[in-house]
Amino acid sequence: MTKRIPALLLAFCLLLSLAACGSEAAQPSAEPTPEPTPSAPALPAGSYSFSEAAMGGAFTVEWELELREDGTYTIIEHNPFMGDLSYEGEYTVDADGVVTTLPFEGEPPMAEFFEADKSCKWTLDGENCKPVNYVESGDAPAEEGGLAGIKYAANSEAQVLDIHLPEGEGPFPVIVLVHGGGFLFGDQAMPIIQPVIDAGTAAGWAVVSVDYRKSGETAFPAALADVKAAVRFVRANAEQYGFDAERLAIWGESAGAYLALMTALTPEVAELNGDVTENLECSSAVSALVDFYGPVEFWTMDAEYAALGREDTNFATSESFESKFLGFPVGEDEAATYASYWGSYTDALPADFALSAWIQVGDADQNVPYTQSMNFAERLGALLGEDRVSFSIIEGAAHEDAQFYTEENLAAVLEFLSGAIG
Q: The pTM is what?
């Protein structure tokens, strides 16, 4: 018995030692110190300003950007022709301090530095701001091959065009492309028409993008005379550039659509050639027309919006784009206003006149009543035959809406033109 006691004590000590080891092993290991989370950039609340040299420096638009601590913004555009316009929404700021004003509700600004979804990136410098996409006048890259800024007439610096040729050997069918901008803004390289240029050249068309005199320089019919002269230039220089002079279409958006349809429907009205005398031996006739949301009949625009339930328009006043384009208030002289309407010249159409037309508009257009396009399509169909006019309304689309410029829609327009011209 006495010999067993030391053995029991030894076993007991061993058990205590193992228990202690187990207890130490069970102790949780120390947690690693977490990396500090980078703090989000502070919101640069404050007021900032920017001066835009619009229309190649012809006039200045002042912009105010108000950024608030709650992440909301107000942009105010002080436009000498359109008045004060405001846009509101939310903004973000990235690690480099670049502010993005997120899309807002309502019509997009005319300024080209906004994205298609109406967002805009801004850099801040003291009390000043500048849109990331803003291009100073004269800073745009030159077109490769020297096909940009080609003069088609000698009356004005605005009478230039850019030629975009597809790959392969000509002669190529031609789209004469006319930009919009209220007859007051824009040029032949506006971002909104770039999808048409890209889709057209990819489909084998030469695209001739045209600039023209604006209402700040001279009045009707100058801009129309310019577009007619551009079509004559295409015919006169077909061999040099590889154009097929017998396969011409004209495509316009907004104010450019008005100029396009007037060109297409008045091929032999001499007084509408205005003061432009270049290449008068050539015809300005085309075989097909594309009209994206164009104004058509200026005299009825206020009444058409009123019929749609909107009473706040001012097309008849001296302040409207249309009045500035004509050189007098639209509502002041009905007879003079109708000198700008295609229907006033149908008796001058040649006996063998033929035209195919694609007319498309959105029913949420707040710049031009969509009924202008509806009425135009109906009357043109009666003149040409309904089978020669394709008319459609894009539900929910606004003026200059991105839905007009999707790959699917542009492919449908180009297929129509190919069928019309052959």
A: 0.75
